[in-house]
Design a protein that fits this description.
- The chain is α+β, with helices and mostly antiparallel strands.
- About 45% of the residues lie in helices and about 25% in strands.
- The protein folds into four domains: about 120 residues, Beta-Lactamase (2-Layer Sandwich), CATH 3.30.450; about 110 residues, PAS domain (Beta-Lactamase, 2-Layer Sandwich), CATH 3.30.450.20; about 70 residues, Helix Hairpins (Orthogonal Bundle), CATH 1.10.287; about 160 residues, Heat Shock Protein 90 (2-Layer Sandwich), CATH 3.30.565.10.
- A hairpin with a 5-residue loop joins strand 8 and strand 9.
- Helix 9 packs antiparallel against helix 10, helix 11 packs across helix 13 and helix 13 runs antiparallel to helix 14.
- The longest helix is centred in the middle third of the chain and has 59 residues.
- The N and C termini lie far apart (about 105 Å).
- The chain binds adenosine-5'-diphosphate.
- The site of adenosine-5'-diphosphate (ADP) has 21 residues, from helix 13 and helix 14.
- It is an enzyme of class 2 (transferase).
Length: about 525
């Protein structure tokens, strides 16, 4: 087999021992002459390669090394060039390459060789080791893959990620952040300015001081940082960001890094703004609708008010007459005056109701009795229903839970439903002119239904009646039902319509009851 023939000065037993040591060491050992021909290859190598030492030295092509057959084709040229260079110059031979195992599988090895020289400095032998580093290579490759994945993740995550030292000096920006700012870490190194200051320069002037104060406070106290601010994009456009930063602490609780996450919320902020504008518009519309509805009612209300005033006048005159007699009956006078007061109160109530409906009050939250609120609306619409010959029937559930919400807004819903029903009844010449208003409670849900026997709603139009501006009336606005729905929605309830039997429409809404009456 192989021989170890490089130590002529050693005794045979020393040579044998040395060989034993070499051959029992992990890894493979080899020696080669000055021309690069192997003089020794450890048996473990030959077993691995399934090759005779001679094969490693023998080549059909004299420009090639015999071991070309066992080195991975992608590695051979590089390794051969290196080996040739070392043979020529005597430089240390250190390389990594794959070797083919007897079963055809390639494994990575680290190959190192050092020259041994004679007294004239001529290279006499090369001694080397070949160590299997396949596992290590795999582990390194896996680690590299993981690192790549992680850095891809950090770069591709749709947010800005950055890292700061405990003093607040930025040490890392992910790609999203550099792309957004048009700045990388190196660009924030400016003379006479900290990196953090360079970043704060990109924060909107109105937010910068607050940003700096908040961040500095967190750096001192170690509390989490959270703030919304505007940040300048590379194209100069400011966008709203929601930013958070958390400290990373070591085992002793000392802050070692800060990690910041910054998320673009500009679209969301715009949507919120648009929504709040929409709410404002809705409330303006609701107010307009209320005022215009009240405008329509004003004429008939004036009639309603004249009635208690006329009655007060009569009662006052009666009181005067009682006083005109020689011995006035004060009891009768008092009675007449009490009637005057009651009449005035009645007129006052009517005016209060109108005022309550017309004023633009912000939504209120109160608990109230829905039956009583419906009664009030019925009283308010009495002149309209009377004028149109509509008879209002009520079927109120006893002991309803109180309802929580804006009483005036909910009354407006009922008002709209009643006025729509009256208009629907008006549109039908013949048939019942009854308008039924009922309340009911199922579990904790309170329901109100306004039913009429008008023409009803064409089933294909059912889903449109709650849309804004949908109207079939020549002078309609199409806003009433859409406002009603938004009011009921805002109260967490539901408003819908269904066909009445034998004809007409039933508008229903349900609300959550607040609590049972005490
Ligand atoms: P407007 O009353 O100004 O038309 P609304 O939003 O209150 O606006 O109503 C929208 C449409 O729904 C009405 O034009 C009408 O076609 C229909 N509608 C509403 N209530 C009834 C009802 N009780 N019976 C039949 N149709 C109705």
């Amino acid at each position: 087999m192989t021989t170890f023939s490089n130590s002529p000065s050693q005794t045979d037993s020393e040579a044998t021992r040395a060989l034993q040591i070499i051959e029992s060491m992990p890894g493979h050992a080899w020696s080669a002459d000055a021309a690069g021909r192997f003089t020794y290859v450890s048996p473990s190598t030959l077993a691995f390669l399934g090759n005779a030492r001679e094969d490693l030295n023998t080549s059909d092509n004299e420009d090639e090394f015999g071991w070309r057959r066992v080195v991975h084709p992608d590695d051979y040229d590089r390794v051969a060039a290196k080996w040739r260079h070392c043979l020529e110059t005597g430089a240390h031979y250190d390389t990594e390459h794959r070797l083919r195992r007897a079963d055809g599988v390639y494994r990575w090895f680290r190959n190192s060789g050092r020259p041994s020289r004679d007294s004239q400095g001529r290279i006499t032998q090369w001694y080397g080791t070949t160590i299997d580093i396949d596992e290590q290579k795999r582990a390194e490759a896996a680690l590299r893959d993981r690192e790549r994945e992680l850095s891809q993740l950090v770069d591709l995550v749709p947010s800005h990620l950055w890292r700061l030292t405990p003093d607040g000096e930025p040490t890392f920006f992910n790609r999203r952040m550099t792309d957004f700012l048009g700045l990388d870490l190196a660009d924030t190194d400016r003379p006479g300015m900290s990196r953090l200051d360079a970043i704060i320069e990109t924060v909107h002037l109105d937010d910068a001081a607050k940003f700096r104060d908040a961040l500095n406070r967190c750096l001192v106290t170690g509390e989490s940082f959270a703030m919304r601010y505007r940040l300048r994009r590379a194209d100069g456009v400011y966008r709203w960001m929601s930013s958070r930063a958390e400290p990373l602490r070591d085992q002793d609780g000392r802050i070692v890094q800060w990690y910041g996450l910054c998320h673009d919320i500009d679209d969301q902020m715009r949507a919120e703004e648009a929504l709040s504008q929409l709410h404002q518009m809705q409330s303006d519309f609701a107010h307009m609708n209320r005022v215009s509805t009240m405008g329509e009612l004003a004429a008939s209300l004036s009639h309603e008010i004249t009635q208690p005033i006329a009655s007060a006048r009569n009662n006052a005159r009666a009181a005067l007459n009682f006083l005109d007699v020689l011995q006035p009956d004060l009891g009768e006078v008092r009675e007449a005056l009490a009637c005057v007061v009651a009449d005035a109160d009645r007129a006052g109530d009517i005016i209060d109701r109108i005022r309550e409906h017309i004023k633009k009050a912000p939504p209120r939250k109160e608990r109230f009795d829905l039956n009583a609120a419906v009664e009030e609306v019925i009283a308010l619409t009495r002149s309209v229903t009377n004028r149109n010959g509509v008879s209002v029937q009520t079927r109120f559930a006893d002991g309803l839970c109180l309802v929580e919400g804006d009483r005036v807004q909910l009354q407006q819903v009922i008002l709209n439903l009643i006025l729509n029903a009256v208009e629907a009844i008006e549109a039908v010449e013949m048939g019942s002119r009854d308008l039924l208003i009922s309340t009911e409670q199922v579990g904790k849900e309170i329901g109100v239904a306004v039913s009429d026997f008008g023409p009803g709603i064409d089933p294909t139009h059912l889903k449109h009646v709650f849309e804004a501006f949908y109207t079939t009336k020549p002078s309609g606005t199409g806003m009433g039902l859409s406002i009603c729905r938004s009011i009921i929605d805002a109260h967490g309830g539901r408003l819908w319509v269904q066909a009445n039997e034998p004809r007409g429409a039933v508008f229903r809404f349900i609300l959550h009851g607040a609590e049972a009456r005490s």
